[in-house]
Amino acid sequence: MRLKIALTKGRLEDEAVRLLTKAQVDCSVLADKKRKLIFQSETDEIDFFLVKAVDVLTYVKHGAADIGIVGRDVLLEAASSYYEVLDLKIGVCRFCLAAPKTFDPTDYKRKVIATKYPNVTEAFFRQRGEDVEIIKIEGSVEIAPLLGLADAIVDIVETGATLRDNGLVIFETIHPISARLIVNKASLKQNKTRIFSLIDKLQLVLKEETADETING
Ligand code: PRP
C-alpha cells in the first residue's frame, strides 16, 4: 500500500524534506515541482502532497493522508483527531502577545486583540480570567494595533523582525511552537510497520542533530 504524506507548503517545506531525506525517504520527486501538487515516489511507494497547514490536518483527520507534517500553531488552534507522534524541532517559533510599547496589560478595560488564531487567544485570556474582544485577521496582523483596530495581537514570532520593524514589543510568550509529525489513527493500525519504521528513522535523525548541536555549541 502506498503511503500518503501531506507536507505544509512554504516555510516548513525545505526543512521537512531535509529531515525526511536524512531518514532515508526518497524525496527526489519534490526537487522539480513546477505547478504540480502531488508527487509520486516510485522507489519508496510514497505519494507526497503539498497543501496549506490547516489542510494538512484535514487530510490526516479524514485519512486522505496517512501522515502529515504541520506546525504546532495549527494543532493548537484547530481541535482535530490524529496521533501527534514526533516533535520534529523544525519551524521553531512561539505564540506571543505583542503590542505597541504603550500597551498596559494590567489595564482593566476590555481589550481588543487581533489574531489569526482566535481559539488560542481565547484560551490564553480565559486562563487569565480576562474577557477580551477578539478580531480575526488573516495575515500581517501587526498592522491592526498600528491602525487602532486592536490594542494588541496574538501571533507567531520567529526572528522578531516583523515586530521590531513595526514598533511592537512582546508582552508575553504563550506557547513554544515547532513542526510535528501527525498520523491518521486508522493508518497507524493498518500500516504499523512502515509508519513506525519511519518514526524510528526520524527519531534517530533528530537524536543525531541534537548531538551535533551539543558538540558544535
Ligand atoms: C508570520 C507571523 C508574523 C511573522 C513573524 O507571518 O504571522 O507576521 O511571520 O516572523 P518574524 O518574527 O521572523 O518576523 P507570515 O510571514 O507567515 O505571513 P502572514 O503575516 O501573512 O501570515
TrEMBL record:
Domain of life: Bacteria
Catalytic reaction list: 1-(5-phospho-beta-D-ribosyl)-ATP + diphosphate = 5-phospho-alpha-D-ribose 1-diphosphate + ATP
Any Gene Ontology biological process: L-histidine biosynthetic process
Intracellular or extracellular location(s): Cytoplasm
Domain ATP phosphoribosyltransferase catalytic residue range list: 52-203
Database matches in SUPFAM superfamilies: Periplasmic binding protein-like II
GO molecular function: ATP binding; ATP phosphoribosyltransferase activity
Record's keyword annotation contains ATP-binding: yes
Chief site of localization: cytoplasm
Keywords: Amino-acid biosynthesis, ATP-binding, Cytoplasm, Glycosyltransferase, Histidine biosynthesis, Nucleotide-binding, Transferase
PROSITE patterns per record: ATP_P_PHORIBOSYLTR (PS01316)
Family: Belongs to the ATP phosphoribosyltransferase family. Short subfamily.
Listed PANTHER family: ATP PHOSPHORIBOSYLTRANSFERASE (PTHR21403:SF8), ATP PHOSPHORIBOSYLTRANSFERASE ATP-PRTASE (PTHR21403)
Biological role stated in the UniProt entry: Catalyzes the condensation of ATP and 5-phosphoribose 1-diphosphate to form N'-(5'-phosphoribosyl)-ATP (PR-ATP). Has a crucial role in the pathway because the rate of histidine biosynthesis seems to be controlled primarily by regulation of HisG enzymatic activity.
Domain notes: Lacks the C-terminal regulatory region which is replaced by HisZ.
Name of protein: ATP phosphoribosyltransferase
Species name: Listeria fleischmannii 1991
Organism ancestry: Bacteria, Bacillati, Bacillota, Bacilli, Bacillales
Encoding gene, per UniProt annotation: hisG
